[in-house]
Design brief:
Number of domains of chain A: 1
Number of strands of chain A: 0
Number of strands of chain B: 5
Largest interface: A-B, 23 and 22 residues
Distance between the termini of chain B: 38 Å
Radius of gyration of chain B: 19 Å
Largest sheet of chain B: 5 strands, parallel
Oligomer: heterodimer
Shape of chain A: flat
Strand content of chain B: 5-15%
Helix content of chain A: over 70%
Structural class of chain A: mainly alpha
Structural class of chain B: alpha/beta
Distance between the termini of chain A: 51 Å
Shape of chain B: elongated
Radius of gyration of chain A: 20 Å
Largest sheet of chain A: none
Order of helices and strands of chain B: HHEHEHEHEHEH
């Protein structure tokens, strides 16, 4: 039941947003695939940032263990906030690159 | 370098993976393949591995479950000795093993049947310190209490330390849920444990 509840909710709000975009903001439906591609790129960069952040954390934990007398647990690496920060990094990076492309064209 | 392509090359598989993990029973199947089953049997000692204590001295959920399971096994006469492990959250704060021992005493376990070890931070350290604690008492066969995902690694390390291990796994996760959030959390735990197993294997080889 739970997965369907989530999916139905997302489908309904997506359809409503689609309607608002087309009717109110006069967005072209044909541009939707471009938006999806951009979203996909944002997610891809976020994933790369997540991998880099986790790799850095692992190295930092081992460095602290070997260079100091502190014990730092590897379980610290799985912090959920890292996902949110990685998404933020990915989106900013994607927007920045797009800005570079726009300025380049001008 | 085409950055858009790089982003898309990682983005599409990520979306696919997210949908498969959250909306299919993959996580539930993965859990069944990677977790240990109970093999009930008597032993010379019940060993309850550490899991975590809060700064105020109260046990974490997982620690409490393990402690209770240890006490239940003791009360059901699987072994005459109960060993609790677990350090403090920070210096000067209550030690997990001591907090669990207090709980066991309140639940009717005689003080002379309880041993504690509070200086281990990793599974490997727990095995080394347990050996120092139990070998002089001639104890080899232990009933091991830890979570069902951690059991494989803990058993591996303790067997290498010379113990004969009887697994008594504790289920600390929601494993049959169809909730996307539960499935994502479970997959995260499985991935974390599989990486830990790989790390233990590699460090043993090196």
């Amino acid at each position: 039941m739970a997965p369907y509840f989530v999916l139905i909710c997302v489908a309904v709000t997506s359809a409503a947003a689609c309607l608002v975009a087309v009717r109110v903001f006069r967005c072209a439906l044909s541009d939707l695939n471009v938006a999806l591609a951009h979203a996909c790129e944002c997610i891809g960069f976020s994933a790369l940032f997540l991998i880099a952040n986790i790799a850095f954390q692992v190295i930092a934990v081992f460095a602290m263990r070997f260079l100091t007398s502190l014990f730092v647990s590897l379980y610290m690496v799985g912090d959920t906030t890292l996902i949110a920060f990685s998404v933020l990094q990915g989106v900013i990076f994607r927007c920045w690159c797009e800005r570079r492309a726009i300025v380049g064209k001008q | 370098m085409n950055l858009d392509r790089v982003g898309r090359a990682f983005g599409l598989p990520c979306i696919g993976l997210f949908l498969v993990v959250a909306f299919t029973p993959l996580a539930n199947h993965l859990y069944r393949w990677t977790s240990a089953l109970a093999e009930p049997g008597t032993a010379e000692a019940i060993v309850v591995l550490g899991s975590g204590v809060y700064g105020d001295g109260s046990l974490g959920n997982s620690s409490l479950r393990r402690a209770i399971d240890g006490v239940v096994l003791f009360r059901e006469r699987f072994s005459p000795l109960l060993v609790f492990l677990g350090p403090d959250a920070a210096e000067g704060q209550p030690k997990e093993a001591e907090v669990r021992a207090s709980l066991a005493r309140v639940l009717g376990v005689p003080p002379e049947a309880i041993l504690t070890e509070s200086s281990s931070w990793t599974t490997r350290e727990e095995a080394t310190h347990l050996r120092k604690l139990l070998a002089p008492r001639g104890i080899r066969r232990i009933l091991l209490v830890t979570n069902s995902l951690h059991m494989w690694r803990a058993k591996y390390v303790l067997q290498r330390a010379g113990f004969e291990v009887v697994p008594a796994p504790v289920n600390e996760f929601e494993t049959k849920s169809d909730s996307p959030q539960d499935r994502l959390l479970l997959t995260g735990k499985i991935a974390q444990e599989l990486l830990a197993r790989l790390y233990y294997r590699l460090t043993d080889i090196l």
